[in-house]
Amino acid sequence: MAGKPGYGAPRGQAQDDLYTVMAIIATGCVALALGYVIYKAIELHGTIPSFAL
Q1: How many helices (H) and strands (E) would you count in the chain?
Q2: How far is 42 from 36, CA to CA, in rounded Å?
Q3: What are phi and psi of 37, to 5 degrees?
Q4: Mean pLDDT value of segment 29-52
Q5: Over the stretch 18-34, which tens digit does the pLDDT of each residue have?
Q6: Nearest to 42 by CA among 13, 34, 18
Q7: Cβ–Cβ contacts within 10 Å for residue 38, how many?
Q8: Residues in Cβ contact with 48 at an 8 Å cutoff, skipping those fewer than 6 apart
Q9: Residues 16, 21, 25, 31: what is their CA dihedral angle, to the nearest 10 degrees?
Q10: What is the pLDDT of residues 6-17, one digit of tens each?
């Protein structure tokens, strides 16, 4: 029964945790890549270039 104490996590919980970890890792990779691009832009141009039209 769903309401009885002592039963484990609902089905799918472990897979949801895996997706959460993968999303955190992917977000970290994107943040590192963006940080690297900003660092290189500052190193090459002295500032972050403006893309205003």
Answers
A1: 1, 0
A2: 10
A3: -65, -45
A4: 87
A5: 899 999 999 999 999 99
A6: 34
A7: 11
A8: 38, 41, 42
A9: 80
A10: 565 555 566 778
**What are the structure tokens assigned to 46, written together?**
């002295």
Higher-pLDDT residue of 3, 23 = 23
Tokens 């039963």 appear where?
7
Please tell me the pTM assigned to this model.
0.61
What Å distances lie between residue 4 and 9, 10, 13, 14, 20, CA to CA? 12, 12, 17, 20, 27
- For residue 16, give both structure tokens: 């949801």
Asked if the model's pLDDT at residue 48 lies above 70, the reply is yes
Which amino acid, 46? G
Task: Read off the pLDDT of each residue in 28-42 and give the average, rounded to a whole number.
Answer: 93
CA atoms within 13 A on the CB side of 12: 0
